[in-house]
Amino acid sequence: MLIYTVKPGDTVNAIARTFQIPISTIIYNNQLPYPYQLAVGQALLLSAEGSDARQVIDTAGYAYPYANESVLRQTLPYMTALNIFSYGFTVEGELIPPRQSDERLIFLANTYGARPVMTLTPIDASGTFNNNLISGLVHNPASVARLINEIIQRFEQSGIQGVDVDFEYILPEDRVAFADFVRELRTAVNAVGYKVSVALAPKTSDNQPGLLYEGKDYALLGAAADFVLLMTYEWGYTYSVPMAVAPVNKVRQVVDYALTRIPAGKIHLGIPNYGYDWPLPHIVGVTKATSIGNLAAVQTAIENNAEIQFDETAQSPWFTYTKDGVQHEVWFEDVRSYQAKFGLITEYGLAGAGFWQLMRPNLPGWLLMSGTFWIR
Fold it and tell me: What three-state secondary structure class fits 180?
């Protein structure tokens, strides 16, 4: 891997001459828009050539049915699976397809050799996670049987090849019943040749308080599913103080705990494909950050003549800028922060990576990943 951090006075032409790399390679690898301006502190992927000794991993990412086709066509060659977000259900066990047809996503996934996977969520008509839906389902054997049957039928009708269970805000009293549901679903899905994964909120202990965590039993769910996705992102989020979305020091704590309950060969590390832009000053409960793509964040820095910094503890890039009299702070991901996260996968021997989400371009990240690992 060759990653270069832009210094004052650098140009694409000068960097290409210094490293004896074609200008077109730098532009392509980093998706630089014309006229190919650079930000001081910007990380450029100059080379992503890997070795034959690379670790083999699975890769997956989430996308909504309305995802941009050109972005998906650029991304899917680097994915093992495409998790379609999302399918819902009723308390009676009726499967509810996405509001917009997912036929296009299934076709594109198959075109590039990625498995199209159903993401199952308890999202209600208002668009929010509803734990009453979870309770009503997992304690009713008839509803569970109906839902599983309809999922298998959907496989046959659509070409979907697996299920990712993303249930959030599970009530503590539903902890065991939820794990039993995942186990029963896995048995049925495995019988037709596919797999079941489950998304886990980022815990660091068995008894971590909070509705995001108390209903997710790492040991039970790790045993119940074929594999798990650690949702190791959203430390920095819409209403948080400005900070890294997925600081590596915090991610490491989650992985350390997960490995005490789940084998490494069952764990996929969650990685964000986005950042946040916070207006300042930050007022708790009032200030609202705007989600921003990683490449768009760099362009924001360029447009506002901002120098990109790199936090060594979080292993994440950030910068500040002022526009229309308002100061902003931006945290995002780049090839340096991805390299740090990929390093955790290698260090711990994890099974793969899962990205939220694939709606935005991220070719530098995918190229870096393909140079770091063999993608199964």
Answer: helix
